[in-house]
Amino acid sequence: MENLIKKNQADKQLGLGILIVVIGSVFLLRNSGIDIPHWVLSWHTIMLGAGLWIGYRKNFQGSGWLALTIIGAIFTMKDISVFHFELSRITTALALIAIGLYVILKPKGIKNFENYHQEKTADFSDLNK
């Protein structure tokens, strides 16, 4: 149990260290005169990253991480323009497709009831005393 706790703390430290290095690198590149898009460190990109990180930490169980990821992705895609084509035109369609794929591909909570059926006999011998 103690090893599991130490591994969990090491994973947190590794993730936090990578996050700090990435943010520092973006600031360094931006201050060096290299053109970094404004959306890279915006609130919605941070929300997208936080949603994915929470999902990873919880093995993508639950739906809290999904809400953060979808909201962050929608606003981030509105800011990104690729080849002079604005992704905001197709953001809603992509979000609906992503939600549909999640509903289709998420693990099902099917339970096998074969093991629950056990033959138990009632003992009424104590009632006659």
Automatic annotation (TrEMBL):
Keyword Transmembrane (UniProt): yes
Family annotation (Pfam families): LiaF-TM (PF22570)
Domain LiaF transmembrane per the UniProt entry, residue ranges: 16-108
Keywords: Membrane, Transmembrane, Transmembrane helix
InterPro entries: LiaF_TM
Positions of transmembrane segments: 12-30, 36-56, 63-81, 87-105
Protein name: LiaF transmembrane domain-containing protein
Source organism phylogeny: Bacteria, Pseudomonadati, Bacteroidota, Sphingobacteriia, Sphingobacteriales
